[in-house]
Amino acid sequence: MSQAAKSSRWPRILLRTIIVLALMAGAGWGGKLVWKQISPGLFGTKREEKIPTARVRAATISEEIVAVGRLRAVFSTELRSEINGRIVKILGVDGQKVERNQEILRLDQTDLLTQLQEMERSIEAAKLKAQRARADFQRLNGLQQRGLITPKDFEDSRITLSLAENDAAISEARAANIRDKLTKTIIRAPHAGTLLLKDLTEGQVVTSAAAQNGGTLLGEVADLSSLMVRTNINEIDVARLKVADVARVRVDSMRSVQMTGEIKRIATSAFESYSDRTRVFPVDVLIEETDPRLRPGMSATVTFTLSFVEDVSAVPLSAVFTNADSMRYVFRRKADTLTFEARAIEIGVADTRRVQIISGLNPNDEVALTRPLEFDGEIPAPKAVAAPKLKKSRRTGT
User: Fold this and answer.
1) 204 and 93: one domain?
2) By CB distance 3.0 to 4.6 Å, which of 205, 206, 266, 358 could disulfide with 346?
């Protein structure tokens, strides 16, 4: 190869070398950027992640129990038939004002009237038999006194008379039972109030209250001048309530209207909730205000206020942590730094968003809303800092 050919190859080799080095440098720089992005995810939390914080601020906090229930009359009586029967006449109207003993509906009396007629004939026959047996007994009694009949004949006549009188008494009792059933074919209002009648039709067959399922519910008579909400409170919260506690009631169909209620009854025994299988206690809240728009069966939300504080120092609920010794602490940001320190605190009333800080922090202190990166694993019991107790405020409830 000539010297001229060799000298012409060097520029091309040099150019290729420069291009390869440039590509390698670019790949290395890009790889470094990619590694910086994915390496924290592969080997730990991102070290450059910014910790969200919040400051200690004044707030009003209300610790509450919210439950749902249904409106019902304080004084009401269910209407059920005492006998089986078929409805022949509905005299009452749903929502009607009724007085005591006012007729509401009637059941068919045909079978009972037929039975009563048969029984009255049986009574007449039994009375005739008893009358004849009595006459025979009186006749034999005179013969017995004169010694004209044997003692056995006299005793037989006495027994025959007793049996005839007994049959007559049985027939009278059965007739009285049928008459009583006849009176029960008319369903009357047990007391004055508003008639809340179920969707019934004439010709419908109803079962008596003695049936296994309690019989057919015909309706109820309720005093709508006094309403209450019956709700169920779980076994953890019910111990914090007591009779005469005040509650706020809001009916779902009247969201803009808030009423005041008072606890009138807390059940002494619990039952198992069908929804989540927890133990709950029925609690009755009497509504103090009356409104003609309220109806039994409406859904209502009841709010019980357990504790209430205003103008107190508070932090978001997510800023408070608990260690294995049940000590509450926060991660307080050090002044003019990006680092944090664990500080023990004393808390007060809490709601679903904030918690009251009684001691351990000062107003405007900045706390972390998540665990800072430098605090991995279990936090040892933080030492309580001699910080002044924060401002006390009015507190109500238990």
Assistant:
1) yes
2) 358
